Amino acid sequence: MVDGKPLRIGVAGLGTVGGGVLKLVSANADLLSKRTGRPIQVVAVSARDRSRDRGVDLSNVRWYEDAADLAVDPDVDVFVELIGGSDGIAKQAVEAALAAGKHVVTANKALLAHHGAALATKAESAGLTLAFEAAVAGGIPAIKGLREGLAANNIREVHGILNGTCNYILTEMRTTGRDFADVLADAQRLGYAEADPSFDVDGVDAAHKLAVLTAVAFGAHVDFKSVHIEGIRHVSALDINYAQELGYRIRLLGIARRTEDGIEQRVHPCMVPITSPCGATDGVFNAVVADGDFVDKVVLVGRGAGAGPTASAVVADLVDIARGRSTPTFGVPAAALEPAKAAPLSRRRGRYYVRLMVVDRPGVIAEIAATLRDQNVSMEAFLQRGRAPGEAVPVVWTTHDTDEAAMQQALATIASLDSVLEPPRMIRIEDF
Ligand SMILES: NC(=O)c1ccc[n+]([C@@H]2O[C@H](COP(=O)([O-])OP(=O)(O)OC[C@H]3O[C@@H](n4cnc5c(N)ncnc54)[C@H](O)[C@@H]3O)[C@@H](O)[C@H]2O)c1
Ligand SMILES: N[C@@H](CCO)C(=O)O
Ligand code: NA
Question: Where is the signal peptide, in residue numbers (predicted)?
Fold first, then answer.
């Protein structure tokens, strides 16, 4: 219902994203009002540090020490949760807002990954909107793109670069040779990283987003616990250089696919062709690639983190609410979401890159080749550069299509060989 009355917003959390939302709502006030037929006004906020200058005049805005009190303010129409965390105050305040009849907009993928289905049920049964465009792939309209734009399709697969911090780190390591810790500190300074950056580099943040994206893509229950998760801590400069030589980029990807066994969900470093959509997406940019049965492949690329892009997504959700538009939270009503059925990663069939550090002595390669033969793993390319008799040298190969289970078995055997000095580094190759 659009009646020209202001849409009254309460914002909890005024950090990177909250600050960005305040700025956007103020800077583009006229535009938003023209587009929705009513002003969007921030009337209340809750934040830890009242004295901090956020570059926006908050003198006429109500302050709350406790976000849960803001959530039930009778003069707030929409509660915007930008605090973060899967439980604690964020969950408590969102639940309080829904119970008090407020629409909720959140950027909190951790909350949605753990409690998305339950919160959607609460919102829908009260006729309220729970919106979260900012939670997945920052400024990219990935949720709306899938849920509204591709609503006519059976989605076969969705994959993408879902963590800006990791893509920024991998890009900077390749293009500048800087080391991991140094680039991560940069990403934190730029407002890309999570409060606990291990969520970024260990793949957990991308897995939160993938679980939410999967639910929207397939109309299935959010099933975070079934996501296979590996992060980027083990990706070395050596691997990044070998990837380049082989025609690939290393990306942390989230991949969700419908298979005969159920829905496969995985987050791990991948090698993808340099010219593929994900291979060509550098820096803090994210990419989301969806494959629908009628539309075929659709690619969305944009900034995945940072104040401006994330605020853009939060406010787009506010525009929907101001216009009175509503869509089932995950594309189908919460009661009709398909029960989670997870396909195991052991059923993956595909190509692999492997790097070993071995003692440079005769017979080592023959031992490795014998292990691969025993597991029916077929080598595609093999690289060994330079000689350093008696010392550690890298040995790299790629495989033809191989079963994950066979690959894991071969790697376990290879890891136990005396001549292999470090745990084997394996990166899955995806020829998207
Ligand atoms: N930074 C990004 O690029 C980005 C992008 C998409 C989504 N997100 C998500 O947005 C949310 C916020 O992220 P951020 O980067 O702005 O984090 P941030 O740490 O910069 O901001 C969070 C703010 O919440 C405040 N806060 C903490 N506890 C509070 C409480 N009890 N009451 C009120 N305020 C409280 C903190 O003081 C802080 O200012 C998180 O869920 C995050 O995952 C962030
Ligand atoms: N830490 C997240 C923020 C965006 O959700 C990232 O780097 O992608
Ligand atoms: Na988004």
Answer: none
Q: Is the CB of 36 under 6 A from ligand 1?
A: no
In tens, the pLDDT along 21-78 reads 999 999 999 999 999 999 999 999 999 988 888 889 999 999 999 999 999 999 999 9
306-334 pLDDT, tens per residue?
999 999 999 999 999 999 999 999 999 99
Q: Does 194 count as an annotated binding residue? A: yes
Report CA-CA distances (Å) from 79 to 45, 64, 137, 184, 317.
10, 13, 21, 32, 12
205 lines ligand 2 (CB under 6 A): yes
Domains of the chain: 7-135 (3.40.50.720), 142-304+337-345 (3.30.360.10), 348-429 (3.30.70.260)
Start-to-end Cα distance in the chain:
43
304 annotated ligand-binding residue: no
pTM: 0.97
Phi, psi of 135 (to 5 degrees): -75, -25
Distance 132 CA to ligand 3 centre (A): 8
